[in-house]
Amino acid sequence: MLEWCEEFSIKNQHLDEQHKRLFQFVVDCDALLKRSEPPRETEIQKLIREVTDYAQMHCKDEETYMKHISYPLLEAHKTQHREIIANISMAGADTSDPIQTCKTFYEMLNQWLLNHILQEDKKIDSYRNRLRDIKEIPYSLEQQTRILGEVFDVKNEKRYKYICSCPLKEVEVCESLHQLMQKEGTFVRCKVCKQPLIYRDDSLDDEDKFEALMQKYFKQF
């Protein structure tokens, strides 16, 4: 399970603290599922009410902040918030089977964390800083691999070799991240040289092609 770290920050202390609490709700729900005594209906209802109230407050605060910084994706983000709140409400509509409700609620919370907080909310930080390309993944290679590990079996996936402008340096990228970068045209930066990691396919064994790639690709960043 992912734990909060500074890479997830959107550089707003108030919203970061709220995101930390949302991380904790996922932990709380997981604890209910893993304990020896099955979760009771009253416990599930209580957790869902707490998450609903907190999510509504958080979404309102986040939207106020986005409006303050003139965030261009505000309306789309507000639509996502409405969908999230609606899904939470639906999860609490029937708690007659506490175990299944808890499992469903945990999966929903985890997906919210992975898909919204760690991806969509991070774009707010990118916009505010105006430092990142729209295609840049805003996490280190290690952290993005951990995030993907919540969905895919990254430990047993095929590895692909990537390079940057650091001399004689190669890194291994799991298949899930490799496919994401190749299909979506996204990239991860090296923490040392700050240049994008690029796939080291067989064509790079040709010295002329490698030199041409270095001059053309890295010049953009």
Blueprint of the fold:
Layout: H1 13-34, H2 41-68, H3 74-91, H4 98-129, H5 141-148, E1 159-163, E2 170-174, H6 175-184, E3 198-199, H7 207-217
Helix pairs in contact: 1-2, 1-4, 2-3, 2-4, 3-4
Mean pLDDT: 86
Biggest sheet: strand arrangement: 2-1-3
Please describe the biggest sheet, giving its number of strands, its sense, and whether it closes into a barrel: 3 strands, antiparallel
Order of helices and strands: HHHHHEEHEH
- Secondary structure tally: strands: 3
Span between N and C termini? 33 Å
User: How many alpha or pi helices?
Assistant: 7
- Shape designation: globular
Q: How much β-strand is present in the residues? A: 5-15%
Low-pLDDT residue intervals, each spanning 5 or more residues: none
Structural class: mainly alpha
Global Rg: 21 Å
Percent of residues in helices comes to 55-70%
Task: Explain what you see.
By secondary structure, the chain is mainly α. Helix content is 58%, strand content 5%. The protein has helices at 13-34, 41-68, 74-91, 98-129, 141-148, 175-184, 207-217, and strands at 159-163, 170-174, 198-199. The chain has a three-stranded antiparallel beta sheet. The protein starts with 12 loop residues before the first helix and ends with a helix.
